[in-house]
Design goal:
The protein is an all-alpha fold. It contains 3 helices and no strands.
Length: about 60
């Protein structure tokens, strides 16, 4: 039996990133398992960029 990990990113943030990166329709139709590895990597990269910008503003 596989363990389920708690997501670090909120579902809301993931959806927003998917919309910004252009694969929201795939997520809607197929779920998160339907996206390409490259798209998942780009989503993580964008989330890191946003976090770094937020950290420098404080």
């Amino acid at each position: 039996m596989a363990r389920r990990r708690r997501s670090v990113m909120s579902e809301e943030l993931k959806m927003e990133l998917a919309k910004d990166l252009g694969f929201y329709d795939t997520v809607q139709q197929e779920g998160w398992g339907g996206i390409k590895a490259k798209d998942a990597g780009n989503m993580v990269k964008r989330a890191i960029e946003l976090a770094e910008r937020a950290a420098t503003r404080k």
